[in-house]
């Protein structure tokens, strides 16, 4: 794999702005694809998704629930996101009430004291989406000591002026009872998000409510399912796996707020939710089974990360008997995923509605344990590794440390050799371009590499810096070019980089909803969009062969990096793969220069090359150009027919562009 790319030693240094495609004096950049010497196989799991509860990724994100704070635990002092709707001069008040528990989980409820007809309203996750001709499923627990008459349930504009859908329950009683009702909007309803969900009484009395839920139609019509638009964006990426449930969300700030998967199973009535690590509570409506069904819906494998005895605030349990309960918990979790129904946890999965086991190849032990300054990870890893391998020898186990860090230092796990190592890279775009050859000379004898989190940002400060919060939630074209340059390196080396997924995946773009930027996919209550980086990943995931094609490159111009002190880097990045059965070649070329670049392509060893082919290009006039919730498709891939492919041909790349050339060759 070493020197798969040979960039000419006699590089011409050409600076942005003075690189002219018409400059005949300069030899064209040339890419020679050697079809006579097929390279390594492309990893079948190369592109996947990373998920975690950050930026309202689940609650207020892909998880389709529209009610925020449905079990009133978000704020112990006040009914956050709930308000009273007064009718006329009537007076009414809402409070949290712990004196009427439904069960051990649904302890706190919402109490409405009404002197006359009144309502309780929820403002949703920065609004409630209304779409025309759409049926919503509302459900809630209620009881009353007042009039035992029906409640009216509605979706209406925030000022109450427009009622989009309305229905009545049967008479409520003085005992807790669950009510379920459908609400259908009219064909003429204008799509909007400035709306609220309201439950209105028909008279005076005291009323109690709990587990108030409202779902729009979901992907594959799953109850407790996912948003259709966001799932479709993911489906278009053709992901092969989902790394779940995090990230930091796996670890939690403390032991009690880790992702405690057993508390995320079964009916919503049994799910207490837990404090997340990004400043808001997780409802855990997106529980372990929902993650697995998300995988099933998109035909991808779960990549299960198990809690490994270390939390974000630095608490940890060293190797030994105190760690064993967490090891046992991980074994049970794996059994929940892959055990048949004769096992305890396989039977639980069947009881929860999914008798068939899921496919599972990779289990990751912990998350970013390099931050554990106690140095306890190796011991913890050994204890998990031995127990999991003893019971499930077929599983591939991923360590969160080892390998080579960003400074090029090597860390070895001495006691056990992990099957793969999870490396994370959050860098600015020009650093990714500079290091796009990172894996070209990587040690092939050690564990495989899983790049479990990576993403380009456009700033000199990192994504978690406070200054990020005032910037756009999703990245611009500069970042997409950095991402694409980095992906050429991972794809070219996918014999060793067997999987990768960028992070974070999601962001709710409303002010106050996000803690991190940039993120791949943005949304509000109503709409969603992909960033240029998202489209770069769609292109890389969709156009992928089975075998890597070696490329020798000549005359590739370089350009100085924008960040002072960094070296000059090539202005073109590339990788080619070939489909084994059809022979189709997917040549990806990233042009990071501000000018068009003609590139000569030679297909060495091709007997026949079809003139007609396809090109897919993502480009922007300026590096700052981007997509947003207001302009969701400003930058999208454009597919065109090519009719000039041959054994040797010249193709001109647009300035600032990411390109796929799909070539039929024998
Ligand atoms: O993706 C955001 C966070 O970055 C992840 O939760 C964590 O693993 C990493 O530090």
Topology, element by element:
Layout: E1 5-7, E2 30-34, E3 49-50, E4 82-86, E5 92-97, E6 109-114, E7 118-122, E8 135-144, E9 150-157, E10 163-171, E11 177-184, E12 195-200, E13 205-215, H1 228-235, E14 241-244, H2 248-251, E15 274-275, E16 281-282, H3 288-297, E17 301-306, H4 324-338, H5 344-351, E18 362-365, H6 377-391, E19 396-399, E20 403-404, E21 410-411, E22 420-428, H7 429-434, E23 448-457, H8 477-492, E24 497-500, E25 506-508, E26 521-523, E27 528-530, H9 532-542, E28 547-549, E29 551-554, E30 558-559, E31 569-570, E32 572-578, E33 585-591, E34 597-604, E35 613-619, E36 638-642, E37 648-653, E38 657-663
Parallel strand pairs: 1-29, 2-34, 3-14, 14-17, 17-18, 18-19, 19-22, 22-23, 23-24, 25-26
Antiparallel strand pairs: 2-29, 4-7, 5-6, 6-13, 7-12, 8-11, 8-13, 9-10, 9-12, 15-16, 20-21, 26-27, 28-32, 30-31, 32-33, 33-38, 34-37, 35-36, 35-38
Helix pairs in contact: 4-5, 4-6, 8-9
Bound molecules: alpha-L-arabinofuranose.
Alpha-L-arabinofuranose binds next to loops.
């Amino acid at each position: 794999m070493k020197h798969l790319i040979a960039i000419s030693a006699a590089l011409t240094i050409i600076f942005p702005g003075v690189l002219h495609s018409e400059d005949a004096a300069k030899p064209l950049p040339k890419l020679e694809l050697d079809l006579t010497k097929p390279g390594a196989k492309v990893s079948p799991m190369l592109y996947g998704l990373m998920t975690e509860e950050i930026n309202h990724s689940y609650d207020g994100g892909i998880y389709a629930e529209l009610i925020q704070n449905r079990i009133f635990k978000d704020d112990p002092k006040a009914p956050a996101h709930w308000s009273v709707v007064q009718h006329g001069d009537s007076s009414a008040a809402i409070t949290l009430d712990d004196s009427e528990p439904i069960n051990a989980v649904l302890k706190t409820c919402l109490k409405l004291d009404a002197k006359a007809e009144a309502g309780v309203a929820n403002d949703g996750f920065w609004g409630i989406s209304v779409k025309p001709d759409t049926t919503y499923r509302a459900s809630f627990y209620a009881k009353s000591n007042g009039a035992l008459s029906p409640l009216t349930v509605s979706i209406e504009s925030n000022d109450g002026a427009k009622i989009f859908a309305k229905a009545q329950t049967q008479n409520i009683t003085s005992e807790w009872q669950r009510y379920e009702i459908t609400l259908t909007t009219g064909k003429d309803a204008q799509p909007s998000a400035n709306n609220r969900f309201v439950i209105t009484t028909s008279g005076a009395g005291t009323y109690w409510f709990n587990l108030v839920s409202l779902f729009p139609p979901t992907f594959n019509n799953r109850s407790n399912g996912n948003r259709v638009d966001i799932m479709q964006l993911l489906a278009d990426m053709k992901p092969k796996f989902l790394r779940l449930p995090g990230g930091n969300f796996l670890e939690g700030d403390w032991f009690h707020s880790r992702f405690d998967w057993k508390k995320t199973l079964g009916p919503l009535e049994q799910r207490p939710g837990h404090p997340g690590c990004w400043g808001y509570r997780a409802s855990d409506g997106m529980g372990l089974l929902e993650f697995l069904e998300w995988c099933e819906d998109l035909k991808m494998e779960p990549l299960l990360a198990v809690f490994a005895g270390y939390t974000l605030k630095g608490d940890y349990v060293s190797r030994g008997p105190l760690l064993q309960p967490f090891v046992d918990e991980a074994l049970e979790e794996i059994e929940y995923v892959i055990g048949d129904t004769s096992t305890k946890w396989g039977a639980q999965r069947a009881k929860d509605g999914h008798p068939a086991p899921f496919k599972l190849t990779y289990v990751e032990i912990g998350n970013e344990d390099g931050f554990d300054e106690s140095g306890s990870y190796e011991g913890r890893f050994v204890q998990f590794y031995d127990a999991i391998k003893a019971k499930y020898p077929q599983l591939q186990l991923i360590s969160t440390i080892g390998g080579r860090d960003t400074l090029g230092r090597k860390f070895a796990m001495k006691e056990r050799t992990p099957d793969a190592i999870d490396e994370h890279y959050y860098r600015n775009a020009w650093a990714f371009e500079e290091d796009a050859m990172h894996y070209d000379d990587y040690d092939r004898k050690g564990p495989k590499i899983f790049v479990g989190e990576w993403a380009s940002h456009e700033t000199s400060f990192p994504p978690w810096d406070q200054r990020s919060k005032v910037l756009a939630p999703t990245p611009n074209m500069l970042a997409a070019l950095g991402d694409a340059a980095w992906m050429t390196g991972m794809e070219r080396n996918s014999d060793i980089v067997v999987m990768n997924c960028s992070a974070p995946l999601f962001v709710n773009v409303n002010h106050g909803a996000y803690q991190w930027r940039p993120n791949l996919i943005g949304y509000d209550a109503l709409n969603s969009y992909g960033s240029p980086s998202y489209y770069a990943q769609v292109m890389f995931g969709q156009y992928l062969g089975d075998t890597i094609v070696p490329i020798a490159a000549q005359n590739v111009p370089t350009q100085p990096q924008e960040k002072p002190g960094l070296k000059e880097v090539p202005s073109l990045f590339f990788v080619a793969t070939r489909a084994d059965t059809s022979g189709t070649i997917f040549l990806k070329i990233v042009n990071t220069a501000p000018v068009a670049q003609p590139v000569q392509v030679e297909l060495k060893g091709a007997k026949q090359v079809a003139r007609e082919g396809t090109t897919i290009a993502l480009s922007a006039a300026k590096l700052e150009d981007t997509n947003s919730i207001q302009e969701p498709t400003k930058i999208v891939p454009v597919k065109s027919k090519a009719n000039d492919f041959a054994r040797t041909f010249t193709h001109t790349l647009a300035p600032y562009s990411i390109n796929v050339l799909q070539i039929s060759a024998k």
